[in-house]
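User: Assemble these into one structure.

Assistant: Restating your components, then the assembled model:
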Amino acid sequence: MVTKEIPRTTAPAVPARRSPRRRRDGRAALLYLAPGGILLLAMLVYPIYQLVLISFYDYGQPQAVGNAPLVFLGFGNYVELLENLQFWEVLAKTLGFTAVCVVGSLALGTGLAVLATRVRAWARVPLFLAALAAWATPAMAGSYVWLFLFDADFGLVNEVLSGLGFTGMANHSWTFDTYSTFGLVAAEVIWCSFPFVMVTMYAGLKGVPEEVIEAAYLDGASTWRTTWSITLPMVRPLLTIATIQSIIWDFKIFTQIYVMTNGGGVAGRNLVLNVFAYQQAFAGQEYGLGAALGVVMTLLLLSITGLYVRSQRRSAGWV
Amino acid sequence: MRTRVLIAGLAAVGLVAACAPAQNTPAAGGGDEKTGTVRVWLFDEANRAPKEAAVKEAIAEFKAAHSGVEVDVQWIPVEGRADKFSGAFNDPASAPDVAEFGNTDVSSYAATGALADLTGDLSSWKEGADILPAVLETAKSGGKTYGLPWFTGIRALYYRTDLFAELGLKPPTTLAELTETAKTIRAKKPELYGISVGGKYTYAMLPFLWAHGGEIAKQDGGKWKSTMDSEQAKAGVTAYANLLKADICPPEQCANLTGTQSITAFAGGKAGMSIGGDFNRKAVEAGQVKGKYAIIPLPGTEAGKIAPAFAGGNLLGVFNATKRKSLAVEFTELLGGAKYQEKMYVAMGNLPTLGSVQQKLAASDPSVKPFVDTLTAGTKFVPATAAWSKIDAQNVLPTAIQQIATGGKDPAAALTAAAAEMNKAFG
């Protein structure tokens, strides 16, 4: 009996067979990515490239229209900026102001989101409507409304306060003292940016499955424990996004400071970086210096958000 | 990984070294077409209707004299002018043919090469010789004239006649008296500001500076150097900053006021005095104090003298890139001529720049007299250099005034810092 030899087939040439498909996949992926990529190149990479380039030159209005020769300064604009004491002062104030606004809007937004999950619909609907109205108000209009409310002579706030017996508050100027002014603007910024946090966090809280919470209760976890060990880790990605968004927005505040402090407050003591950049560089048509400031701001913002994202990844193992 | 970073780094350095930032080509001289549309930019005003009516009349006259010509007017907000003009400089195709602009901006605009040199056109214009020489100076940069002075902005002292009568006060004859009078008003009427002026009202501060013998800057061998740190400048700025005190115009309310806001407070009956221009008279007339105020020249440091005023005002200029050079110049000369200067005075209260029109108005309208007297007594101007626009945009002088007024810095320190900032801008 001759056993028939089983024909030995060569091992399937997996790489050879998959390679064209992979190539095809790659091509398709490239094709899908192309529109976004081209847009990104045109709208982000090229302007940033120009920004960096301009920051190395003495570039003002005469240079922009080609009526004066370009002078390469190297890091001259950066040196001028970093040697300017006022820049450091404004930077410190901007960081402090941003921190207050971010913490304020996160605390208020998250607090109200928790409240919204606990109350009935008749209470939740007005809360959301009020928040959305604040959110939808243009920054310019919101700033003026707050200014009117806190006006020294005709403002409702002073009238109410003096009516309540705080007679010292009649004709009190809220926009004179450095901290009082920053506080007022921060309150306005928090007022118009907490709704985003609230809506995001509300969605996150609603997304936590009830079974998990129930299971935790059955295991005897306290409310506090459930919040810290179940809810918080589950909403952490959303909280991170809300925080990063808030940092980016609040670091770049312009309108509220510009409008409410009349362009930076008395003797420029309420300036933040964006308004400082506008006043020093763009209104004065020193685009080179302004570009350098723009680059510095971008790097600062990238590193702040980068550090924050890294700390979140570390503590939660979240990617 | 490391090599990749290195290559990327080298590539970046190469890119930066090899390329220069984008520049537009300089505006080429335009054409001289005799038909088509002349595009005009004029400043929008709080109360534009009378200005618009006068301009429309001029357009109708211009169109009647030139067949096949249209005039298109765009109203530019004063606050947003920097962006609009930058746009016009960057893209000559979208620039107007004729534009109105402030005389403090002349040097920085001229530096872009976008404005046409009108020196020859104005000297051959039949009304050109009538332009007051001091006013014509404010339209010059580097010896060339870049605009036709359309109107002059001169500021003087406004005061409440009813209040002065009630309190038995006399109009001040020196700046020191002005301070005392302001204190008396505030002491007797605590709800009023003695005089409404502001920390951001540079043009109200300048007469104090000049009256005390100070100067903003001096030119030495073509290079400007700030003189804000001189003793005279210190005396002048301090005298002005002392008005922003609790016993006259409290810093909580006044430290951040601009010129317009100061006049608004006076027009609303909140102040005993204010410093305002001829161009503010319409606003004051529309306020609560109508018929209850008078205007006199701002006094100097000695009785009988007038503090040198800032020679503000607006010009009409022609863009180099215009395709209709002669039409643009002709329209400028029509709108800036005697007939329409007078109409603009009636419409807006703008003080004319032509000597004959000014004399005629002063004879018929007594309210012009304080401004004409101030102008005749001698005016001064800001340094005629492109750096002034930057110093202005960076709030260098208002910051010093505010620091002195609020006690944030002593006068010497504040003005030394301001002088250093200015010298940096002068380069």
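The interface with chain A takes residues 15-16, 19-27, 82, 86, 89-90, 108, 111-114, 199-200, 251-253, 255-256, 258, 386, 389-391, 393-395, 398-399, 402-403, 406, 408, 425 of chain B (CB under 8 Å).
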